[in-house]
Predict the 3D structure of the following.
Amino acid sequence: MKLDVLLGLQWGDEGKGKIVDYLAPKYNMVARFQGGPNAGHTLEFDGFKHVLHQIPSGIFRENIENVIGNGVVLDPVVLKREILALDKFQLDLTKNFFVSKKAALILPTHKLLDAAYENAKGDLKIGSTLKGIGPTYQDKIGRMGLRVGDILSDKFKDRYHSIKEQHLSILAYYKHDTSLLDEMEGEFYAALDFLKQFNLVDSEYQVNEALKSGKTVLAEGAQGSLLDIDFGSYPFVTSSNTMAAGACTGLGVAPANIGEVFGIFKAYCTRVGSGPFPTELSDEVGEMMRKEGREFGATTGRPRRCGWIDLPALKYVITINGVTQLFMMKADVLNIFKEIKACVAYKLSDGSVTDKLSFETLYEDIEPIYEVLPGWNCSLDNISDFNKLPQELTNYVSYLEKHLEVPIKIVSIGPDRTQTIIR
Ligand code: GDP
Ligand code: IMO
Ligand code: MG
């Protein structure tokens, strides 16, 4: 079998958790391949609402293996908290949960460094979730990080102390407060002991053996393609490759073994944190979207910036990811509008028009050029058949397909598992 990959195509929070949970029964394994506790993936079913940060969103489904791959940066403290929060569901994570020994470890000082670097940036703050993501990937690439498998070694403490000393010298340079470090370290060591009871594995073998034996595996992306370290709105991005290629390096799966690439997007657009957002609405329309879509971060609680859909950006990420199917989320949030806008191109400061996300468009003040479509302006409650959706909504779907040249196979009309329409 080939590895299917599910990716957010915007700036994250597209609804990946909901859809992975929905699709999971079709798979034998769900695997995270990048990012870490900066992610917040929300699942709703049977009256429960649950947010996962590092645990794959297949965890609530029976008989599915859930894997944290080598490309992830793992915070054991957050993981312990996440696992304990699952107590009420009576899942046995010692059986269906696996962590790559090659995943990078987020250390307490990585979180302090994240805050120190952000504070030093002044007006150029990225709006990081401050979970230690950037500094941990920095140490991984700098070849000085610790990995999950290292916690089993006698030399772990020595190596930890030597890295900590280096971090402390940087923190001293930034005059950053380290008074909480002792407490953080206590929690960190307790969480490492807790982590040892779970399956720490060479997940590249596990994933490839599963595929070879005919099992189905879904890779669950975190963040979104516009936050990709290479192709996103740099420097206002996260520190990993959030695109399809990230699933190859983050799980150890060869490019030829990638199957479907599911691209998921909101029927509009949101962004949390700083950085360019051409279609952002700073007016009451944006406020209505935020209210209707409950657009507040699942990890940080911050209000998400809202705006109309950006087709040039979607076309760009569909190309770099090789998206084969699109899933449109949160269509119901647009129920309140009589008219819907879609950005089809950008006007640059010299008056020229483009539909490309060139290097320059990222740094210039660009003006979106919109097409206006009629809204459906009615409730979608209790609709479960694509053909029963209002005509204006199916027209919107066809309009997007024409521009994006990829079929839209799922339309999501609410946060619950059941509010999912397959086409
Ligand atoms: P993720 O990071 O991509 O998993 O997305 P988040 O969980 O951060 O944010 C998506 C939010 O939208 C969550 O609160 C979901 O419960 C909610 N959601 C998902 N799909 C839909 C939908 O179709 N309609 C509405 N109204 N909410 C949705
Ligand atoms: P999910 O998986 C939305 C954003 C942060 C910030 C930038 C860098 O839930 O879609 P980082 O903590 O990675 O250094 O932050 O990226 N960001 C996200 N925005 N959803 C996410 O994850 C995000 N993860 C990071 O807000 O702008
Ligand atoms: Mg999220």
